[in-house]
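Milestone 3.1: sequence recovery, worked example.
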């Protein structure tokens, strides 16, 4: 046993004993130095490229300095516990070190490397490319990449961050995290990971092979002014894209002419949530976020989509099990086919912008089919005057449910096609359903029924807080009669083998407010609490009763200071309501002689607690108090102001 332990101990320690930190200082460095400490640093990137690195090694560039060239590593392998780190050292008050690619296409180029961390650098002229070329038909998986806290800008020759293997390669990447990066002014795309399939000899699109990249996380990045897509992922299984901001994608692309904030291609199990996509431009695609070809189980939720000229929802062919839900779309879909968009250089547009586009495109010269099993529900959609809201439902679409959306579209809808035939409900029965969507002036939408087998009109004005605003809080609905608890249940369509009931169930709205009881219409679950004066009524089920059977509950009557017996029009029992993304505040009169006031909060109308005294101000000189509720901390949906005589 002693001999066995003697052999094990050096093996366990070897990774710690032989890892090293290498320092690069362009001012005092010398490439003849050993580079192993700050007093004997290397000078150039060229020296960095002359050796291999292993478990736990660190390649550290001096802050406040610029290094010209391309970091080029091949077959360098870290481990999960000790990745190879490329980062910064020195006075943290100084700027990040700059890696300037110079005349190279990339500032950092990694080939066949694993377990790499790249952090705290400024990168310019070229981007980062991570590749796995070699024997394509060996099904190798390359693991472990963490890119974070990078500033990548003014890249004139490549994409900012790309992971790439050959079209027919069996090699893939796994366990990639890209977070907290700022990417701007890029000739290519912002972030891409792909394994393209190429084309067959007859020019038709090839079917991708069975090998997928796995476990991709893209978090909290800011991507702006990129000529192509902000984020594009292809052939990935299990991806999370969350908390990112893309703006002005495709903004200067005269060649390809497209630039969605995000799009997916032949992916599986992708969740895209809580992102903001704005200002996408291009003569094709260029949506906030679209689901391109061949995807399975893509869920897009809780995203804010603003002024993307390609539109809000775009689904192409061979997609199966796609969901758009609880998103807010503001002024998307401005593009008109055949017309050049202002401020762009790609010429006349080749496609219409759309509110909803369900298309069968599968690639150039490909056979059109699908999309299949599409669910678009509980979104809030607004388009301003001057925007023609276009609906493009092609004849290859099968099994779709569009429901519970709140649509406020100022102009009359159009039904233009980019070329393929549109769906004909009188001749086709592919189970396309448009149900329970609240639509302002819905009589204008009669023609939309031609493209659905089930078409149920639901008219009303959601009464948004601030029409044509550009913040999510501008689209909080105030018409509780048409919004609150009005959604229908969403269940898998017959024959759906991809999505389950749990996949279609949500527990919170766009802002993270809990969904209590039946969901409200649109993306926002009554973020404005229902204010009411109980005037002696108990805060219980009586409030949900309809005393005179007129369709208005006692709670709603009191919320709007109405008499529940005759529902006379009254006024809301508060003054100076203020709403923002973090809090809600209002004043109420609290100085009537001989009257006691008390405020309670509840999230279910059954259990009431006294409001935190710290959320109630002192009375001002006019007899008003102010209640401030931090919406980010409180899930309370209802507020009760009780008034009693003392």
């Amino acid at each position: 046993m002693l001999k066995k332990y003697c052999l094990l101990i050096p093996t366990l320690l070897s990774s710690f004993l032989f890892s090293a930190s290498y320092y690069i200082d362009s001012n005092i460095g010398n490439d003849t130095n050993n580079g192993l400490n700050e007093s004997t640093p290397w000078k150039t990137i060229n020296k960095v490229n002359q050796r291999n690195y292993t478990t736990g090694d660190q390649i550290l560039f001096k802050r406040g300095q610029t290094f010209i060239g391309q970091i080029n590593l091949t077959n360098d392998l870290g481990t999960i516990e000790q990745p190879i780190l490329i980062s910064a050292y020195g006075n943290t008050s100084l700027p990040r070190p700059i890696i300037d690619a110079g005349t190279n296409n990339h500032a950092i180029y990694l080939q066949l490397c694993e377990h790499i961390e790249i952090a705290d650098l400024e990168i310019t002229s070229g981007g980062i490319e991570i590749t796995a070329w070699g024997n394509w038909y060996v099904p190798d998986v390359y693991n472990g990449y963490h890119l974070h806290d990078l500033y990548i800008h003014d890249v004139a020759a490549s994409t900012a961050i790309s992971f790439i293997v050959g079209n027919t390669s069996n090699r893939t990447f796994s366990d990639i995290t890209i977070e907290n990066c700022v990417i701007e002014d890029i000739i290519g795309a912002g972030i891409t990971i792909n394994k393209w399939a190429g084309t067959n000899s007859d020019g038709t699109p090839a079917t991708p092979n069975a090998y997928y990249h796995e476990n991709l996380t893209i978090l909290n990045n800011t991507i702006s002014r990129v000529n192509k897509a902000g984020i594009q992922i292809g052939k990935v299984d299990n991806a999370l894209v969350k908390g990112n901001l893309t703006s002005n994608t495709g903004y200067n692309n005269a060649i390809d002419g497209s630039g969605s904030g995000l799009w997916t291609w032949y992916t599986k199990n992708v969740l895209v949530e809580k992102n903001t996509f704005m200002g996408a431009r291009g003569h094709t695609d260029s949506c906030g976020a679209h689901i391109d070809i061949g995807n399975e189980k893509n869920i897009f939720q809780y995203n804010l989509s603003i002024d993307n000229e390609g539109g809000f929802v775009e689904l192409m062919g061979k997609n199966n099990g796609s969901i758009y839900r609880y998103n807010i779309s503001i002024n998307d879909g401005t593009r008109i086919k055949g017309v050049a968009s202002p401020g762009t250089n790609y010429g006349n547009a080749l496609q219409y912008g759309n509110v909803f586009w369900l298309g069968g495109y599968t690639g150039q010269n490909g056979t059109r089919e699908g999309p299949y099993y599409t669910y678009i529900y509980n979104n809030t959609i607004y388009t301003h005057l001057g925007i023609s809201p276009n609906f493009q439902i092609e004849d290859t679409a099968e099994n779709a449910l569009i429901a519970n959306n709140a649509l406020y579209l100022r102009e009359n809808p159009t039904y233009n096609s980019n070329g393929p035939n549109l769906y004909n409900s009188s001749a086709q029965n592919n189970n396309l359903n448009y149900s329970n969507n609240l639509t302002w002036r819905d009589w204008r939408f009669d023609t939309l029924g031609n493209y659905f087998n089930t078409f149920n009109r639901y008219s009303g004005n959601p009464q948004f807080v601030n029409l044509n605003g550009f913040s999510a809080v501008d689209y909080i609905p105030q018409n509780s009669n048409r919004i609150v608890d009005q959604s229908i249940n969403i269940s898998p369509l017959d024959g759906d083998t991809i999505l389950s009931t749990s996949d279609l169930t949500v527990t919170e709205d766009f802002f993270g407010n809990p969904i209590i009881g039946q969901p409200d219409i649109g993306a926002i679950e009554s973020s404005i609490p229902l204010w009411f004066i109980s005037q002696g009524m108990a805060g219980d089920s009586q409030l949900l009763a309809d005393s005179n059977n007129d369709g208005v509950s006692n709670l709603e009557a009191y919320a709007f200071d109405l008499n529940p017996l005759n529902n006379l029009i009254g006024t809301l029992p508060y003054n100076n309501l203020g709403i923002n993304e973090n809090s809600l505040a209002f004043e109420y009169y609290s100085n009537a002689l001989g009257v006691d006031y008390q405020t309670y909060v509840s999230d279910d109308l059954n259990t009431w607690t006294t409001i935190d005294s710290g959320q109630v101000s002192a009375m001002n000189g006019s007899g008003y108090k102010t209640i401030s509720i931090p919406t980010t901390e409180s899930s309370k949906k209802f507020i009760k102001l009780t008034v009693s005589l003392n």
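Helices lie at 2-18, 45-48, 480-483, 554-559. Residues 14-199+208-226 form one domain.
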